[in-house]
Amino acid sequence: MIKFLKWLSVLSTIGMLFVLVGGALVTKTESGLGCGRSWPLCNGELIPSDFNIELIIELSHRLVSGTVGILVLALSTLAWKYFGSVRETKFLSFISIFFLVLQGLIGAAAVVWGQSDFVLALHFGISLISFAAVFLLTLIIFEIDKKFDAESLIIDKSLRRQIYGLFWYTLAVVYTGALVRHAEASLVCKDWPLCEKGADIGTFSMDQWIQMGHRFAAGILFLWVIYLFVRVSKQYYQQKVMYYGWLAALILIILQVTFGAFIIFTILNLYIALAHALFISCFFGLLCYFVLLSSRSANFDKR
């Protein structure tokens, strides 16, 4: 059974990445109404009679999300049944399903009734939490199979606070990034890292404030990850899970910032934009694993 669950968990994790990137694709191509104001049907039809690129993108996203939802439901149910004794399993199983359903409902509401940019920006963050829960379930299953050892890891209280803070801050940065997309503010600033040469911030439009606010928040996130990598390298260089995990986090955040700049330089190249969404998704999933390890260390302190 554990071999089957390993395969199912990997497929579910990859599937959730497709859901996240697919959602970004729908937004970037403005395909949210590709099926009109109809959900779950497409233009009121089970099988659309007329096809265009927006309809194909939107309908494909719905089909992928539905298929992945079945995989996640199966994974959560089986993980609860066979590994419910592991402390985090039941919570993660519930969270993965709950937030997957929630993001689907928000997407459906946006199609049928429409939503403000500020509400739509929540959609990506909610999907991200569901992905992270599935990703953590996968890591727990691999932990049970002894593919890597994190049981002996103890993270000190000061570093745990930093990790918790980074988690919540990353969610805020993700929200500002999603808001940039939904407000169509990706290209309101023509330069990088500043908005425009010689521009007076007092004359910024709301869209420019949204764009520059995201850049500033992302810059702080970038510096924070560098600081934590240096700290982990000094304190936990013998702990492979910590050292290589934070090295991966550093690489992902460097790619994230670099591709964020390339979005401006390439004038919103679609593939660059999708890679930008992919990197932050992987980074957030990895960060959530360090939150899980930190919570284990906190429980160890209470014993």
UniProtKB/TrEMBL annotation:
GO terms for cellular component: plasma membrane. The keyword Iron applies. It catalyses: Fe(II)-heme o + 2 A + H2O = Fe(II)-heme a + 2 AH2. GO terms for biological process: heme A biosynthetic process. Its cofactor is heme b. It comes from the Bacteria. Keywords: Cell membrane, Disulfide bond, Heme biosynthesis, Iron, Membrane, Metal-binding, Oxidoreductase, Transmembrane, Transmembrane helix. Pfam families: COX15-CtaA (PF02628). This is Heme A synthase. Catalyzes the conversion of heme O to heme A by two successive hydroxylations of the methyl group at C8. The first hydroxylation forms heme I, the second hydroxylation results in an unstable dihydroxymethyl group, which spontaneously dehydrates, resulting in the formyl group of heme A. Its EC number is 1.17.99.9. The lineage of its organism: Bacteria, Bacillati, Bacillota, Bacilli, Bacillales. The keyword Iron applies. The chain crosses the membrane at residues 7-26, 59-79, 91-114, 120-142, 163-183, 212-230, 242-265, 271-293. One of its GO terms (molecular function) is heme A synthase activity. Coiled coil: none annotated. It is a multi-pass membrane protein. Interacts with CtaB. Heme binds at H214, H276. Belongs to the COX15/CtaA family. Type 1 subfamily. It is an enzyme of class 1 (oxidoreductase). InterPro entries: COX15/CtaA_fam (IPR003780), COX15/CtaA_HemeA_synthase (IPR050450), HemeA_Synthase_type1 (IPR023755). The gene is ctaA. It is found in: Cell membrane; Membrane.
